[in-house]
Amino acid sequence: MIKKFDNFTERKKEFGFLTEIRKKAKISSIMLSMNKQDWKRTRAIVNPAFSTKKLKMVLPLIERSCDTLVEIFSDISRKNNGAELWRIFGQFDMEVILAAAFGCQVNILKGEKNSLTKAAIGIFTPNLYNLLSELCTQIPFSTKLFGLFFAKRLKLTQYHNTARNFILDVINQRHLQSYKNTNVDLLQLLMEAKAEDDQICPGSKQLTDDEIISVSLFFLLATYETTSNLLGFTAYLLAMNHDKQDKLTQEINNYYQCNKDSSLYDAAHGIEYLDWVINESLRIYAPGSMFSPHEKESHHPMCFMPFGAGPRNCIGMKLALMDAKMCLTSLLRKYKFERAPETQVPLKTSIGLSQSPVNGIFLRVLSK
Ligand code: HEM
C-alpha cells in the first residue's frame, strides 16, 4: 500500500452487475474501483478539495447542522422513548456532505423532503442486487446478461438516476448563475476539470461528464453510509458502556472549563479521549486491533487501518473524523445515550457495500 504502491495501485473491481446499472444511468466507474490511469488523473484533481484548509471553510455549515441536531435530540429526549438514531445521523451526514462538496445549504434534518436521501438509502440497502451479485459470481458469463436484464427493471437504477439528476441540477444552476464560489468546493474543482467534447488527452488533468457525476455521487454515498455508521455505532457503544460515556463527557466538560471560548472544531480536536473512543468504535466494527496512542507504539502500523493506507487511502478521512467528532462533542455536552427496551443487543450488522446495523440503532436520549 505504501512502499510498493506502484505495483498495487488498483483495488477490487466493481462488480459487473453494478457496472451495468451505472452504465444505464450514464455514471462511469466509481473512484474506489477505477483503473490506475483513471484513478491517478481523478485523484490529482479532487485531492485539493480535502485539504485541512479547504475543509475548515465549511466549518460554519457543519456547526449549523450540529446545532440542528442538538435541537432534534431535545425533542427526542422529551419523549423519553427509544428513537432510531442511525437514520437521523444519516440525515445529518447528508447535510454535511452537500455543504462540503456542493456548497448546498439544505434542511434535511428539519424534514425538508429530499429525493437524494431516499436514493442513497436505496442504493445502500442490502437487497435483491446483493443476492444477484452473489449468484452472478457463481455462474460464469451471467453478469452481463443479468446486469442488462435487471438494470432496466430494478429500483436501484431509478435511485442512480435520481442521484444523477440531482447532481446535474446543481451543475446547471451554477452554469446559469455564473456561480463563483470562493470556497472552491469539490464540485467546482470537478467542473473546472471538464474536458471539451468529453475527449481525454493522455496525461491531462481532465474529466468527462460521466466521470464528474460518478465522482460526485461516490462522495455523497461514501459519506452518507460510512460516517453515519460510525456515529450510530459509537452512540450504541457509549450507551452500552456507561463508564466510558461518563469519562468522555467529563473530558468534554473539562476541556470547555479550561477553554471557555473554544470553537467546536478546536474542542473536537483537542479532546484526546474522543479520538480513543472513535478509534475503538472503528476497531470494533472493522478488522484490526489497537487502542490508545501508547498501545499504537507496540503494534505494526498497518494492523489497524479503517481508512486504508498509502496514496489510495480514504480521501474523506479528515472530513469524516471532523464531522463525527464535532457531532459527538456537541451532543455529549447536553445529552446521554442510554439503552432502550428496543435496543438490539448484540447489535446485528450486515455487510452490504459497507457494514451497517440491520435494524437501525434504537437508543434513549436523556437530557443532562
Ligand atoms: C467513517 C467514515 C469512513 C470510513 C471508515 C472510510 C473508509 C474507507 C476505506 C477503507 C477506503 C479504501 C481505502 C483503500 O483502498 O486503501 C475508502 C476509500 C474512499 N473513501 Fe472513504 N471512508 C469514510 C468516509 C468517507 C467520506 C466522508 C468520503 C468522501 C467525502 C469518502 C470517500 C472515499 C473515496 C473517494 C475513496 C476512494 C479513494 C481512492 O480510490 O483514491 N470516505 N474509504
Automatic annotation (TrEMBL):
The keyword Oxidoreductase applies. GO terms for molecular function: heme binding; iron ion binding; oxidoreductase activity, acting on paired donors, with incorporation or reduction of molecular oxygen; steroid hydroxylase activity. It comes from the Eukaryota. It holds the Pfam family p450. Keywords: Heme, Iron, Metal-binding, Monooxygenase, Oxidoreductase. Cytochromes P450 are a group of heme-thiolate monooxygenases. They oxidize a variety of structurally unrelated compounds, including steroids, fatty acids, and xenobiotics. Belongs to the cytochrome P450 family. This is Cytochrome P450. It comes from Amphimedon queenslandica (Sponge).
